[in-house]
Amino acid sequence: MTTADPLAGETAAAELVTALRDSGHTVATAESLTAGLVAATIAGVPGASAVLRGGLVVYATDLKHHLAGVDEQVLAGEGPVAASTAEQLAVGARTRCVADWGLALTGVAGPDPQNGIEVGTVYLGLAGPGHTEVMRLKLTGDRWNIRFTATRAAVQELLRCVRGHSPTR
Question: What is the pLDDT of residues 112-141, one digit of tens each?
């Protein structure tokens, strides 16, 4: 699959679209830190409409609850940048957009720390058929580098999950 989109071309997005299509699966995103960059990257691949259900841009903390269904107590207690928040965002993307896989990113791109959380701290949540996981990333660089590196990691990790999952639903 060829792509002229510079975002998709610098990630494994084309391979992800192929893997999702071959498995008969779909994906939806809930993005805070990346503000839709993951969905835009996947959409840059020709044929992405067969697998990309949509996405939620939940930059504001209250939208993480209202749009993605993150528990208000989790947001109040652990905050918007936390493993439990990323997990609930991924599950929310999956359920609210009726997709097989939900992918979520929340973190701090800088330039300043947020509520004591260091710049470059990112949580990536993945939720799929019988599978949920969260990973903490520690990224470096300016805002763009952190956001794009998180996007690249999210695409790569979802590809790993889709390839490791049985193609049967």
Answer: 999 999 999 999 999 999 999 999 999 999
Question: What are 41's two structure tokens?
Answer: 């990257």
Backbone conformation region of residue 114, classed left if phi is above 0, alpha if psi is from -120 to 50, else beta: beta
- So what CATH class is 25-163? alpha beta
User: Band of the pLDDT at 8, cuts 50, 70, 90?
Assistant: confident
Furthest-apart CA pair in the chain: how many Å? 45
Domains in the chain: boundaries: 25-163
pTM of the model: 0.94
Cα–Cα distance, 20 to 32 (Å, whole number)? 23
Residue 36: count of CB within 10 angstroms of its CB: 16
